[in-house]
Amino acid sequence: MQAKVALIMGSKSDWATMESAAEIMDILGVNYHVEVVSAHRTPVKLTEFAEQAAEKGFQVIIGGAGGAAHLPGMVAAHTRLPVLGVPVQSKALNGMDSLLSIAQMPKGVAVGTLAIGTAGAFNAGLLACQILANSDPELAKKIDAFRTQQTETVLANPDPREA
Ligand code: RP5
């Protein structure tokens, strides 16, 4: 089945972070396509990937990048699909550079920016599923169940001293 989510990142080194997006999509049973697409090392590939993404059947693109984190913005410039940007924690500046590069999009081209690191990657996967759930009642039920279970786990374990 054609994947509806494209999970792309600037480097193989981003996978340790971006696999958190894959984790929640696996939990929710959503197919995704994973590929390294670098804005600065493979710029032509990035342009072609973004231009062809909608016609290939993708509905959401998740883009993760650390250094030179213009990847999600460049992808968004070439597609009308929603692009969710994940700032990967860079070594030099702890991901603040990635966050600002991804969040500070000039008016007219939108990138939805998540938190730095694995929490942001996980939430990007979750948000992609939530977007798809608007037209997928079965997926909507799975997300509701995930949220209910999360709430019940917290309520059942209120003592912070216990694991
Ligand atoms: C960016 O630079 C990637 O997104 C990665 O976060 C960072 C470092 O890349 P590598 O030098 O590890 O390939 O392109």
UniProtKB/TrEMBL annotation:
Annotated pathway: Purine metabolism; IMP biosynthesis via de novo pathway; 5-amino-1-(5-phospho-D-ribosyl)imidazole-4-carboxylate from 5-amino-1-(5-phospho-D-ribosyl)imidazole (N5-CAIR route): step 2/2
A biological process term (GO) from this entry: 'de novo' IMP biosynthetic process
Reactions catalysed, as given in the entry: 5-carboxyamino-1-(5-phospho-D-ribosyl)imidazole + H(+) = 5-amino-1-(5-phospho-D-ribosyl)imidazole-4-carboxylate
Keywords: Isomerase, Purine biosynthesis
InterPro entries named in the record: PurE_ClassI (IPR033747), PurE_dom (IPR000031), PurE_prokaryotes (IPR024694)
Stretches assigned to the PurE domain: 3-154
Residue spans crossing the bilayer: none
Enzyme Commission number(s) of this protein: 5.4.99.18
Residues reported in the UniProt entry to bind substrate: S11, D14, R41
Pfam families, sorted: AIRC
GO MF annotation list: 5-(carboxyamino)imidazole ribonucleotide mutase activity
Signal sequence, start to end: none
UniProt enzyme class: isomerase
Main function: Catalyzes the conversion of N5-carboxyaminoimidazole ribonucleotide (N5-CAIR) to 4-carboxy-5-aminoimidazole ribonucleotide (CAIR).
Similarity comment: Belongs to the AIR carboxylase family. Class I subfamily.
Family annotation (HAMAP family): PurE_classI
Alphabetical list of PANTHER family matching this protein: PHOSPHORIBOSYLAMINOIMIDAZOLE CARBOXYLASE, PHOSPHORIBOSYLAMINOIMIDAZOLE CARBOXYLASE CATALYTIC SUBUNIT
Protein name per its UniProtKB record: N5-carboxyaminoimidazole ribonucleotide mutase
Organism of derivation: Marinomonas pollencensis
